[in-house]
Amino acid sequence: MKKIICVLLTALLAFSFAACDTGEKLPPSVAFDENSIVLTFAAMSDVHESGTTGTQQDKKFRAALDLINSLYDVDALLFAGDLTDGGTAEHAAIFGSVIEEYYPDGIPVIYALGNHDGYGGNGPDLYPTVYPEFFYSADIDKDSIDSGNRHAVVNGYHFITLEVTDYYGSDGKCHYSEETIEWLRGALSDAAADDPSKPIFFATHAQLYGTVYGSDLPGSGTCWYSDELNGIFAEYPQCVTFAGHVHYPLNDERSISQTGFTSLGTGSVYYMAIDPGYTQTGAGAVTADCKQVSNGLVLEVDANNNVRITRLDFTSGEIIKTPWEISAPGTSGANKNYDSSRTANNAAPSFANGVSVELLSKEQYSTGLCSVAFKITSAVDDDLVHHYYIEVSKDGSVVSSFKTFSDFYLHADPADMSDTTVITLSNLPGNSEFTVTVRAVDSFGLESKSFSFTVNTPGAAN
Fold it and tell me: Which residue of 114, 156, 178, 375 is most buried, as measured by CB atoms within 10 A?
């Protein structure tokens, strides 16, 4: 029945892409053959199963598996870390029981462990004692499982995962032991020798620095990325890497990157994190609505070794935007569709002529400082507007500036983003006139032309 649903889904996708122009620039066709799919697997991270059924984490995990199973017959599940929230045997047992409930006949479950999976004081050798044996049914290196490193083969395709040794590097980076890196080199060499024409799938929890959205997030205490693996994967252009840890949303096109090899963010099942330094995040990395966002991936490989990557919004039950497609290793299009040329080919956002500005509120506090809220017509883009940059000036001098996100991360389809955007100015002196200048910015940093208007704080002449 699921195969029938998948065929219908494919037909609907094809129709929707033909009938609707979302403005997104599609990569060159890699001729993905949907009639010869030989491998299908889901890739997720940051489930944070908390050890009791019925928690928010548990419900979100089940919602993710419900959506995946309604659309696909998957051959395996791949997790890029933080399967559990506290790293205890109890938490791990609940995670395993959920998988067993959804896949009673068993399925390879290939995981990289995350920093939360070590919070209970247990090492990676705990998990094989708690999880069902079928998790490891595809592993070809049984001796490495207890170390947290996995090498499995599913339908003839190699999957490798790696255990981060240190999340708290004094240099602000995550690190792997020399033994772990040496093991990775051997596993990659073996996988490539088996069949160099096939993609190799790799997962670890820490981001590979400078690859996808969020992979350059600075660390403070806990670190978020490592630069120790990039040079290794540069030797294996057929690799497709997955990482979690940062929880960044998959709606942003920077969540896929090809820098000699292909890198993918995995989003987060439990909650979203996003760039610090915006009005919604401040110095942190989470928004007030972060738990409304839950997403992950499903990958399909055809008989020619092309790969189709579908992003899923587990909250809404929708497919996020257009699936990504990457060419088979060794073909002319390999590692070209999502490289740095996307920035050069990108179009800047724009505001429609006659953009409207509606005053929503003015308030003056006992300190004498004021806040002013207003609503503007949202800008449009060939993909999506990521954020707005606002400058507040008085008498020709900039007195403050800040960035505020659009609502892009809440919508699987950019066409559903709000037509208006609310912007609040804070900590302005009263009885004053200010010029507000707004620019829209897309995911790749291109800015719209600015527009300006005047705001009077309470007490000012109108």
Answer: 114
Q: The tokens 């389809």 sit on which residue?
A: 413
Phi, psi (rounded to 5 degrees) for 433: -115, 135
Which candidate, 129, 123, 118, 52, places its Cα nearest to that of 86? Answer: 118
Q: Write the DSSP symbol of residue 359.
A: E
- Give the strands of the sheet with 150-154, arranged side by side: 150-154, 157-162, 200-204, 239-243, 262-265, 256-258
Residues near 301 by beta carbon (within 8 Å), at least 6 away in sequence: 37, 38, 39, 40, 157, 199, 307
DSSP conformation letters of 83-100:
-BSS--HHHHHHHHHHHH
| Alpha-carbon torsion angle 213, 219, 221, 226, nearest 10 | 80
Cα 76 to Cα 40: distance, rounded to the nearest angstrom: 7
Q: What are the average pLDDT values for consecutive 10-residue runs of the chain, which has 462 residues?
A: 47 42 44 95 97 88 98 98 96 96 97 96 96 98 97 98 97 97 98 97 98 95 97 98 98 96 98 96 94 98 97 98 95 88 90 89 91 96 97 95 97 97 94 95 96 86 46
Q: Return d(Cα 395, Cα 294) in angstroms, integer.
A: 45
CB contact burial 286-313 (16+ within 10 A = b; e otherwise): bbeebeebbbbbbbbbbeebbbbbbbbb
Q: HEC states along 283-305? A: CCCCCCCHHHCCEEEEEEEECCC
In three-state secondary structure terms, 33 is coil
How many C-beta atoms surround the C-beta of residue 37 within 10 A? 19
Instruction: State the first-to-last Cα distance of the chain, in angstroms, to the nearest integer.
Output: 66
